[in-house]
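Lab notebook: predicted structure, single chain.

Context: the supervisor wants predicted structures on file for every construct in the current expression panel, including those that have not yet been purified. This is the next one on the list. No modifications to the sequence; it matches the entry in the shared construct table.
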Amino acid sequence: MNRKKVFVQPLALFVLMLAAMVSVADSAKADDGCFTDMPPGENEPLDDRPLINEEFDVSVRTFDMDSHDPGPGYEVTIGLDDKMLQVVEGRGYDYPKDMLESFGMVWMVDADFDGHTDVLVSLGTAPASDQTFEQYDAWLYNPDEGKFHYAKTFRDIYNPEFDAKGHRVLSHYIARDGKTMVYSAYYWQKDGSIKEVGKTW
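Prediction complete. Output recorded below exactly as produced.
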């Protein structure tokens, strides 16, 4: 009986020490800015909120701006249930023509994780020496108003991907050395902006 007690106590002590080491390692990882350990964003919905997944009807018109304001423009007419909701418009960058093949293409996705479909408009692929960056304008749907609001800083995110489970927007690209892959994570804020909260290499 006494032998059993002597054996169990060191084992329990070892388990506690191991748990403490894991906790310290996780804290150090967060200090390094690894986005996988970042806290949730301020504007996250509840996990059990149902996805409404509106099926919008969209019509896109693209055009060239005048010579004093170079770059392409777009106009997207958005409707729902045979009713016109809103016409959104914007402009892209003055990229070479071959970089603008995807300009004006629409991607419908729940971009801000509120359970409703949003509209993303492609700005084309930004030129780079050894890669291209896909960028989008984001128009976020507010079902209470029946309107879309422009997320101004979203276009600064390269190659966005949506992590619905983590409620974050992920970005990745190759650094200037041509070898290092850079990953970033962004969270939506209460004011409707989106903020980079972590980066790793």
